User: What shape does this take?
Amino acid sequence: MENMEEIKNTKIKVLNLYCGIGGNRKLWANDKIEVTAVENNPEIAKIYQDFFPEDKVIVGDAHQYLLEHFKEFDFIWASPPCPSWSRIRKMNPKQNKPIYPDMKLYQEILFLEGYFKGKWVVENVISWCKPLRNPFKYKQHFYWANFIIDGKPNANRCHNAGNKALSNLKGFDLSNYQGVNKTKVLRNCVEPDAGVYIFNCAFKTQQQTLGD
Assistant: This one.
């Protein structure tokens, strides 16, 4: 049986899927976590690794990695691609060709519901259609989770701000990086304060206990 000191020294094993440059991860306390991040774009994965050198970064298919490795983690965050669900796509049908919604989103939600024993959250845009599973709303995004997220659903995300404003808001200076769409990368980046708030919602009781 573990004693209290051993429990205090145990880090939470986190899987950060579709990690981007790591907005959700930016304010997570390093002394509490051990992070594996998965990103399929090598240039973006390199930026993530530069900002979070202590994390294990894997360039690959996050959807497949989840299926093969979910049992290895205590907490899973997934931010699967959102363009097919975006309301913006429906606002200008002449410019945006109709496409099938990417059902990987709900595959992952149902998979985590059915098989994962730890804490999990799946993040995506507020969709143009009624969700197939009821999400929480926080900062104008949908979050599906197996814990309570009690936040501010209509907080301004400044999504359409310029690169400088987005860089300041999210705390990532990308001026030295080439070969990536900086506007898209910053807009896709979860606000760090949202990332840490949701993480703390998942482990609120445990963190209070460990901090006593």
Confidence is low (pLDDT under 50) at residues 1-7, 205-212. The chain has one domain: 4-211. Strands lie at 12-17, 33-39, 56-59, 75-78, 119-125, 136-138, 141-145. The two ends are 20 Å apart (CA to CA).
